[in-house]
Amino acid sequence: MPKLEKGILLGFYFVQFLTGLSDASALFLVACGLSLIFGVLRIVNLAHGSFYMVGAYLAYYLIANFPQGAFFFWAGILLAALTVGTIGIVIETLLLRRLYYAPELFILFATFGIVLIFQDLSRWFFGAEDILGQQAPGLAGSIDIMGVLLPQYDVVLIVIAPLILVGLWFFLYRTRWGILVRAATEDREMSDALGVNQSRLFTGVFFLGSCLAGLGGAIQLPKGGANLLMDLNIIAAAFVVVVVGGMGSIPGAYLAAVIIGELSAFGVLIFPQSTLVLMFLLMAVVLVMRPHGLLGNAEPEVQGAAKMSTATLKPASKKLKLLGLALLILLFMMPVFVGSFGLVLMTEIALFALASMSLYFIMGPGGMVSFGHAAFFGGGAYAAALTVHYMQTPMELAILLAPLLVGLVALIIGWFCVRLSGVYLAMLTLACAQICWSIVFQWGKFTGGDDGILGIWPSAWASDKTVFYYLTLILCIGGIMALRHFIFAPFGYTLRACRDSSLRVDSIGINRHRHQWFAFTLAGTFAGFAGGIYVFSKGNVFPDVMAIPRSFDFLFMILLGGIETLFGPIAGSAAFTWLHDQIARIDYWQLILGCIFILLVIAFPDGIAGSIHTRLGRYFED
Amino acid sequence: MEHNIQDIILNVESLNTYYGKAQILFDLALHVYCGEVVVLLGRNGAGKTTVLKSIMGMISSKSGRVFFKGKSIDKLPPYKCCALGLGYVPQDRRIFKGLTVLENLEVGRQPPSEGYGEWTPARLLELFPNLAERRNHLAGMLSGGEQQMLTIARTLMGNPELIILDEPTEGLAPVIVNHLLTTIQRLKSEGISILMAEQNLNFARSISDRACIVYQGQIRYQSPIAELSQAAYEKYCAL
Ligand SMILES: Nc1ncnc2c1ncn2[C@@H]1O[C@H](COP(=O)(O)OP(=O)(O)OP(=O)(O)O)[C@@H](O)[C@H]1O
Ligand SMILES: [Mg+2]
């Protein structure tokens, strides 16, 4: 930093502080909307980031098409927020209402379908280019604070958040509606029995929460503009805010948003690339000191996502094993039947099967739903690519190193994650994965950023597609069998005991966290293993492999295959990869995929293997 | 007391209710006359709570009809039953702990659009003086007895014509039980009908007009409370 006079230096820090406060505003609006909706509807709305993005785009277009002037600028912002709120109403009444009695994970999945749909709709309506927001009329200048300039609009942002905070407090504590919202947050059924129409309340709260997200997107427009990455970036940040501030606490959300805003404002000064790492450290400290967040309640009741699977897994019967053997033989004979294009697809299926199996390992028997598993898969791909790129390691070594390096990352991330459970754990994994993605995406000098790393090819002996297919097949089957072994070993039974009755497990002296931590690390390692091979099958790697949508692909494979059987993830990977291959050439395929997500959740909750199992399972018993 | 058929305020016909695959209620039938206090007796797990929740629409029953004031309510969600004049006081009280006493009353206010009905917070606080002192306290801070008063007061805010009370004396000290007795007598004298599940036989005797014994999901015995047969009681209710 250049040497400055003392007065100016003080001013500089003060302005930096104010910048942090203004950055916190939009984040706070999104996070408190998320909290409100979660409190009453018990839904973690992943589409909340999309609402934020749509708010920004809408505000841009409204303002651009309105006459000039301050009145129309603010009218545009308000109208954008209200429009987003209305979109929220439509989604709540048409889709979410059908799902209130479905398992929580399914609802999350539906909301992720909405994320995908909004991605493509936004691209379609608003284009893929980043948009620079309009300046607020009369607020385009700067003010001088002790010799340092602060944009006038930042002052507006700084004021808006506390105003909304006070407004929400007034709403919740001084109006009948607010009282009903708080009552429903505590006990929905009872408030229903006292004559409160829950559907109407849900719709109202969803409207309010969506409006807040839209408003957040709209007010940050002059500062941050609008782009297609906003949705997942903000949702990850909002999850961090919720975890740090405490679920359901609106003052907590404000406090956490301010802390994070300040952390990035000052972090940039010390070490420009460090802001994301700082966010991670903050989360770490808070989780250790106060597992339920700074202002959260001691015992959050919702652990729904963890309860998604309680099926007792049984080792396959003899008949099923024979069937599996037949399938294996078929797989080994594949090169005879399919061309090289088909083999590439089969290779991909095998790798995804291993990756989704590793996710299934912590999700099913482990009871820990991760929304960030792609961080490990993609992490493996990057670990292998980077060692090849910088150290010219041969393929064989890179494939071995990748899982080890990723295992280390999983060890660190897992340490935090196993401290939480259910939805909170899922949110934390998503936030961690988004941070990993951001590091890869932003650290262009080392990772190639958006341009990825190219030219990562297998060793000469394995460069033939058929040979590589066999190599992949053997490694993946080995990995899957290893995971299966862990599931049916005593370790697997202990893990399921931890999932099903944590109290009893604690009381007989089993260290629950340590078991879950180990499982998490193991799952990460195997995902990294798959990722390490994957990069050689493709020859290149881009940040997409560890982005959130990829994490949801893995979850989708498991849901598609069915969560109650071990074969589910494998069937799901095959079905998904095939499906993806079919639609990926269509423009706006994410839109289609999103619709499929939603349809599957509504119509087909058992998944493929699950449905086959319930219909035909009895023929395969011993 | 002689009753006419048209005086029936609540009529339940052949109710079958399940939890998952387990059937809990078997063709259960039951009725309450206007202004009558009916008590459901029965062992733990006999299905008393299930009957009350099924009437209120909190559990959807597989088959059966429920008429309230002549209207069929068996397909209605709880909040609509409430709007028609049914009040529900749950077994485990379920007050909103994070809300103040007055806010708890506000949640129960019905009809929400037309201001107060007969029961106002002022009247209720007069009926329950303990609550008056603590009107601005968080309900979670109240004692068990006070919470029981609050949950009744909260339901009264909806101006119900029939109150469903699920084991109101459970876990209360004798003094509080006496207070509850006078309260319920007062409600009865105001013409409110009451359907109550209760295990405290003395309490039931001193307040109700008629007893129905629930046993294995059916009403096995009923009679005016004064004629309640000791044999039947011991057969179906003794542990
Ligand atoms: N949510 C539930 N899921 C499954 N079974 C239930 C559920 N609630 C109650 N049961 C069962 O239904 C039966 C009737 O229960 P219910 O609560 O109606 O009894 P009760 O007469 O109110 O008992 P108590 O005097 O203990 O309150 C019991 O056998 C109970 O185990
Ligand atoms: Mg009961």
Structural description of this entry:
The complex is a heterodimer of chains A (622) and B (239). By secondary structure, chain A is mostly helical. Chain A is globular, with a radius of gyration of 25 Å. Chain A folds into two domains: 24-229, no CATH class; 318-620, ABC transporter involved in vitamin B12 uptake, BtuC, CATH 1.10.3470. Chain A starts with 5 loop residues before the first helix and ends in a 6-residue tail after the last helix. Chain A is built from 26 helices and four strands. In chain A, a hairpin with a 2-residue loop joins strand 1 (142-145) and strand 2 (148-151). The model of chain B has no long low-confidence stretch (mean pLDDT 90). In chain B, 33% of the residues lie in helices and 27% in strands. The longest helix of chain B is centred in the last third of the chain and has 16 residues, at 174-189. Chain B has one domain (5-236): Rossmann fold (3-Layer(aba) Sandwich). Chain B is built from nine helices and ten strands. Chain B has 239 residues and is of the alpha/beta class. The interface between A and B is medium-sized, with 17 and 25 residues. The structure holds adenosine-5'-triphosphate and magnesium ion. The site of magnesium ion has 5 residues of chain B, from helix 1.
